[in-house]
Design goal:
The complex is a heterodimer of chains A (185) and B (91). Chain A has 185 residues and is an all-alpha fold. Chain A folds into two domains: 7-75; 77-185, Arc Repressor Mutant, subunit A, CATH 1.10.10.10. Chain A is 62% helix and 0% strand. Chain A has helices at 10-26, 29-45, 56-75, 113-118, 120-131, 135-146, 151-158, 162-183. In chain A, helix 3 packs antiparallel against helix 6. Chain A is elongated and about 70 Å long. In chain A, 31% of the residues are buried. Chain B is mostly helical and 91 residues long. Chain B has one domain. In chain B, helix 1 (11-21) packs parallel to helix 3 (42-69) and helix 2 (28-40) packs across helix 3. The longest helix of chain B is centred in the middle third of the chain and has 28 residues, at 42-69. The radius of gyration of chain B is 24 Å and the shape is elongated. Classes of the chains: A mainly alpha (185), B mainly alpha (91). Chains A and B meet through helix 1, helix 2, helix 4, helix 5 and helix 6 of A and helix 1, helix 3 and helix 4 of B.
Chain lengths: 185, 91
């Protein structure tokens, strides 16, 4: 029996904190609730692994983080992406091969950058653009960019090569930029 | 044999390097390639500025979400459900 921890106190002490941790990362209330519940049950099952070296909260948070990564791992594409694949934004042949197609080329944004970053509406719009990324790219984007996990850690967790990760993140950025250009600028 | 100037890259490659630069260090050659390309391509210069802007926006969004989340909590019904599940598991 592990020392110094009583599972019956966990919910009152930690459920809100864990719920916040989860909801920031999965952006889905029901899923966040389920993950917290699973975390408590997994903690109970693995009481022996709680050594009392870390605090209960740190220990439970580590379990929750694992669950979040597993959630994203299931959603990640196994397809190898390469920069060589055609992208309609760029010319596919001729002397200007791989240069911007005129209609897709970035236009000048009619926005004042600093002011936008202060704007609540813009933040909500940006959040919506991120939420609309295809699921198969979103997991990489969330873990690397939002969660600030190290690239090699993301690759390891999601079974991706680093070049594949870069191409996926790049596609996500291209799409985010398109989203803002179409909907905001 | 193709003797391609190593410094000359396409817009497609340049945008990839702009993207990669947001988080990873570029190699010396990549840095030179990107700098050189941005000097001569106004579209990609625009692209680079816009991506920098988006990255800044994301940093701000993240701290905003974190701040907001401090007011989020589970309802007591949700907590009771969790307590019950824990109790059942211990039986």
């Amino acid at each position: 029996m592990a020392k110094n921890t009583d599972p019956n106190t966990w919910v009152d002490a930690y459920s809100d904190l864990l719920f916040r941790y989860a909801i920031i990362r999965v952006n889905d209330e029901q899923l966040a609730e389920d993950l917290v519940q699973e975390t408590f049950l997994a903690g109970l099952k693995n009481l022996n692994s709680f050594q009392g070296k870390s605090t209960e909260l740190t220990w439970l948070t580590a379990i929750l983080k694992r669950k979040i990564i597993d959630h994203y791992r299931k959603k990640t594409t196994r397809k190898e992406y390469s920069l060589d694949e055609p992208d309609e934004r760029f010319d596919s042949n001729g002397g200007m091969k791989d240069h911007w197609v005129k209609d897709s080329a970035p236009s000048a944004w009619n926005i004042e950058a600093d002011k936008q970053l202060e704007s609540k509406e813009f933040m909500q719009f940006l959040q919506a653009c991120i939420a609309h990324l295809p699921e198969k790219w979103a997991s990489c984007f969330v873990l690397r960019v939002m969660e600030e996990m190290k690239s090699d850690e993301v690759c390891k967790e999601l079974d991706l090569t680093s070049s594949n990760l870069w191409v996926i993140l790049h596609r996500a950025r291209l799409q985010l930029r398109d989203c803002i250009e179409k909907g905001w600028s | 044999m193709e003797t391609k100037n190593k410094l000359m890259i396409t817009c497609k490659e340049a945008t990839y390097l702009v993207s990669k630069k947001q988080q990873d260090k570029l190699s010396f050659l990549e840095k030179m390639q990107l700098q050189f390309h941005l000097m001569i391509c106004s579209y990609c210069r625009r692209f680079a500025n816009q991506i920098d802007f988006i990255t800044k926006g994301i940093v701000r969004l993240r701290s905003r979400i974190e701040k907001q989340s401090t007011s989020i909590s589970l309802t007591s019904a949700q907590k009771d459900k969790m307590k019950e599940a824990l109790r059942n598991q211990q039986k």
